[in-house]
Amino acid sequence: MRANSLFTKLLAGFLAVIVLLLSFNVLSYTFFYRNLRQEITTNSTQNLNHIVEQYEKQFQTVQLMLVGLFFHNQLTYWQDPDRSLANDAVNQLVRRIRDIRENEMLYLQDLIIQYKQGHFLIHQGGPDRLDSLYVQSYRSEAYGPEFWRKQFDLRYQMRVYAAADFYNSQNSPIGRLIPFVLKSTTNEDIYITALLDADKMFGAFSSIGQAQLHLIGSDRSPVFRSAAASALPATLPAGLDGTRDYVKADQSYYFYRKGAVTGLSYILVIPNADISGQMSRINVMLSVLLVLALVVSITLSVFVSIRFYTPIQNIIQTIQRASPEPLLPARGKGDELHFIDQNIKQFLRANRTSGRDPQLPPAEGYIRKLNSVYAQPNDLSAEHPYYMIVFRLSMTRQFRELHAAEQDKAARFIKEFISVSMAETFPESVTLLVEKDRLLSLLFTDKDVQDVWKVLERLRLTFDRDKEYCYLTLAFRPQLHSAGPIGDTYGEMAEMVGRRKLLGETQILTSLGPEPLHAGFPPAQEQELYANLQAGQGERATMLLNRMLQRMSKEGATGEQMLACAKEVVAKTVKLMAAANVEIGAVLDRLSPYPELKECATLEELQQLLDRFVRYAAGKLADKKEEKDTIVEFVTDTIRQRYNEDLSLDRIADRLGLTPSYVSRYIKEKTGSNFSDLLNEVRIKKAKELLGRSNVQVRDIATRVGYVNVTSFIRMFKKVTGLTPSDYRKAEIAAEPESGGQPGGRTHA
Predict the structure, then answer these.
(1) Alpha-carbon dihedral of residues 130, 135, 137, 140, nearest 10 degrees?
(2) Which residues have CB under 8 Å from 742's CB, separation 6+?
(3) Which is it for the CA torsion 392, 396, 399, 400, positive or negative?
(4) Strand duo 438-443 + 430-435: pairing
(5) Residue 243 and residue 390: Cα distance in Å, rounded?
(6) pLDDT tens digits, residue range 497-549?
């Protein structure tokens, strides 16, 4: 191979590009490696910031919960002389503590309300004594009963104590817990302790599984140390005062932050060996990738150059063998492309001047014209009388299941088969694929139309034998068309072939017959269909659909009419699902029936598709109807059971552990009514029952159904019923049959 050949030039060009890219990668790698250590320390700083933010937010959240307990209206009632009131107060506090502890995001083991008087306390297990709880339920060597008694004498508002191991009465470990103590600013005889699960908090807040994290109190005493962390040196490195992001000492990096809420110091220790190890691993990985990229690039360059050069050489050899003229030389050595260009131009010039007969047979002339205006027969004009036939291919599901290459091969075969069948009887015929699923045949002949019918009959018999793969529709007006533009004739044939019916057989259409004036559901049956769908009655809905399709088929509806009706049913069903808050994303994407509707070739396929879709939609609507919403159910049950109390949205939201505004929006979205509307509806219903079956005074009825103000009751009653309570009672009495005395079931106030 010559040094200045096209192959050498191609390969040199590829290698030059590779060298440029390699230089860029080497420079990028060098820059990245130099900044890698800084990126690692920056990432560690960001990780520590995230950990501190999460811990401080956690302590602040727990602090707010404890402050809320200090304002609980039953906090001091446990010592009430009335034991029933005292017991009720204790029970309410226990329930509140349990409600708070159920929030898994707080990582609470327990909340303990400690009273100085009698060393009484309340926690999630109920009332207890200090000596009992910290000896049996929460035993710890670091935090015994005496430690907790001394807390009353210490002066602070909030304190986080060091994590310690706690054990229960069976001496089984509970875990490492961090005591978080909050004192009241108004009552020195009460403080509340939150026992926080130290390991769960660390697992949730740290994105580094083996991080060496230390929490240190303001007095430099350790509060928490992660499992992977080693003990800090007795004297911390200088500079850990918040002025610098990190300090390097003792072959380790110390990252420091101080919490704004607790005043705790957070120290993240990263051994220098870890950072060096990360850099070494990245160094090896990048080096391997660089070498691999270089090898692959050179290999591909050689391969592509050979693949490109080989056909060029074949073209040159072909020109050298077949050219009738002396070959023109290349512009220079190795300029193969110039050699090919010059000699092909010489060949074309010789061909144009060779004096070929410009007269072409009609068929060849029309083939050239039609090929140049593919799918635009309206631009053509016939110079001889002709018959026109338009074929439409409707592929079945079995055909569409074939591989794409097999489908293309079969479509080409069908086109060639029709073309050959026409040419056997009519040698001057032209058959062209004018649309994806349509063929056009022009028959230039003086033969009788019966000869055309014989060809069409043979085609019908052939295609009927392959009905499992495709159906053929032929549009043919049995008359000889005059020479001239063929656009109008083609338009009529195209409209004719569009009148195909959804039948599993070859159809030959010879005229534009009338279409049914009305296709689809009568209004009453359409209303019945969507009512059954809304009720989730898929079986009944599909039966109505099949009945409608069978009726349309008997009335002679075309395939396009039936598909249009089916699309309307699908669209209205999707709209019905959306109105019922059913998730329709899959129906509009993965499970959309619209692509399959376009491919339905028979009535059976259309029925099967609509049957699947309608049953799916009915099932989804039925599932939605049967869904139970726990929040709505809780609210409505509470209203029905406690409508006669001073019931408020705030109280219900508090029991749900949600905000009132969220519950209000949620109820409105799910039921369409506000909370107050639901409450007034139940109250007015109960009031109507009392007014209709008793003589209880209106004022007393208002109180019984939960209204404090009788005026508000009367106004609301009239707003809902249109009558005042007194007028409603009179109307009820007048509606009862006269019994000669007081109405049955009434009692006198």
Answers:
(1) 110
(2) none
(3) positive
(4) antiparallel
(5) 86
(6) 888 888 878 889 888 877 666 566 777 777 788 878 877 788 888 888 888 88
| Residue entry with tokens 């029933």 | 84
**Dist. CA 115–CA 202, nearest whole Å:** 31
> 194, 183 in Cβ contact below 8 A?
no
Pairing assessment for the beta strands 470-476 and 507-509 based on DSSP bridges: parallel
- 336-352 helix and 272-322 helix, angle to the nearest 10 degrees: 40
* Per-position DSSP letters for 439-461, written without gaps between them: EEEEE---S-HHHHHHHHHHHHH
The token duo for 663 is 């519950």
pTM (2 decimals)?
0.39
Residue written as token pair 């029905």: 640
Query: Tokens 């295609």 — which residue?
Result: 463
Rg of the chain taking only CA atoms, in angstroms: 45
CB neighbours of residue 315 within 10 Å: 16
User: What is the reported pLDDT for 360?
Assistant: 39
Of the candidates 728, 727, 724, 702, the residue with the CA atom closest to the CA atom of residue 715: 724
Q: Is the pLDDT of residue 178 over 90?
A: yes
Residue 692's pLDDT is 85
Beta-bridge partner residues of 165: 176
In sequence order, what are the residues at sequence separation of 6 or more whose Cβ sits closer than 8 angstroms to the Cβ of residue 570? 593, 594, 597, 610, 613
Residue with tokens 């310690």: 164
For 37, 155, 201, 245, 632, the CA distances from 48, given in Å and listed in that order, are: 17, 31, 14, 10, 42
Dihedral (CA of 339, 342, 347, 348) sign: positive
Q: How far apart (Å, rounded) are the C-alpha atoms in residues 407 and 393?
A: 13
User: In the predicted model, what is the mean pLDDT of residues 133-145?
Assistant: 92
**DSSP class of residue 349?**
H
644: left (phi over 0), alpha (psi -120 to 50) or beta: alpha
Which tokens sit at 54?
């999460």
Q: 375 φ, ψ to 5°?
A: 65, 25
Q: Are 541 and 607 in contact (CB under 8 A)?
A: no
